[in-house]
Design goal:
The protein folds into 2 domains: 75 residues, Arc Repressor Mutant, subunit A; 145 residues, Four Helix Bundle (Hemerythrin (Met), subunit A) (Up-down Bundle), CATH 1.20.120.530. The chain has 10 helices and 2 strands. It has a two-stranded antiparallel sheet with strand order 1-2. α1 packs across α3 and α6 packs antiparallel against α9. The protein is elongated, with a radius of gyration of 23 Å.
Length: 227
């Protein structure tokens, strides 16, 4: 009696894999109408229940959009759809957070490389403005959490790469709940100094200095996750 759910789950995963193949191999693009539920049942020779479960899963992760009375459409897959599904389990696991920190460092270094590889002038107005706002907030005893997030968001925006920008939002979401343990007034001054030095290094197109200050800036998280 306990085998039925296992079989159903297995079939659902098979259906998900095949539907992904249909999307990729069939040349479907975001906004395109996809196969109907009936067509998928016929193509995969699976039950309506299995197909519906697979479609629901693919809609949950943002790959498909099901419009009742209209049809099934391919969505523009968004990285941010995964955050709510995994963030709680990950943020409660220090080892997982250390791995995420390593990923964050690599991504932000890659962002710096992309920014500094461009031949055109780099517009640093947003970073300068955020740094000034952060200095004022620290002096007034105000929270700088949102300004810290804004600085790193603006850094990714300088890449001009939409995927980098979305990855920035995902990474930021994982770290958000930990920031209040770090950004008190004393550490706020350190954060501001790091941000200012990163900004100066970018302005001078000094890749080594920018990466060094970035690593220093993010190293404080390592100590937090070791507690």
């Amino acid at each position: 009696m306990s085998l039925e759910p296992i079989v159903r789950t297995s079939l659902k995963e098979q259906a998900i894999a095949k539907i992904r193949e249909f999307i990729t191999d069939g040349g479907f693009r975001a906004g395109h109408r996809f196969y109907s539920e009936k067509e998928l049942i016929e193509r995969l020779e699976m039950s309506r229940t299995v197909i519906r479960e697979a479609l629901k899963s693919l809609e949950t992760i943002g790959l498909l959009q099901i419009k009742p009375g209209d049809g099934i459409y391919v969505s523009e897959a968004s990285i941010s759809h995964i955050v709510d599904q995994v963030s709680f389990g990950w943020t409660q696991n220090p080892e997982r957070m250390r791995e995420l920190l390593e990923t964050r460092v690599m991504l932000e270094k890659a962002a710096l490389e992309l920014i500094l590889s461009r031949s055109q002038p780099i517009a640093l107005d947003a970073l300068d403005r955020i740094n000034a706002q952060m200095a004022a907030a620290i002096e007034n005893g105000e929270s700088i959490i949102e300004l810290d997030i804004a600085f790193h968001r603006s850094l990714f925006q300088l890449t001009g790469n939409a995927t980098f920008q979305e990855l920035s939002e995902v990474i930021s979401a994982f770290f958000h709940d930990w920031r209040d343990q770090l950004l008190d007034k004393e550490s706020g001054y350190i954060t501001l100094r790091d941000h200012e030095e990163i900004t100066k290094a970018i302005a001078k197109k000094n890749m080594a200095a920018a990466k060094t200050w970035l690593e220093h800036h993010l190293s404080v998280w390592e100590r937090l996750f070791e507690q």
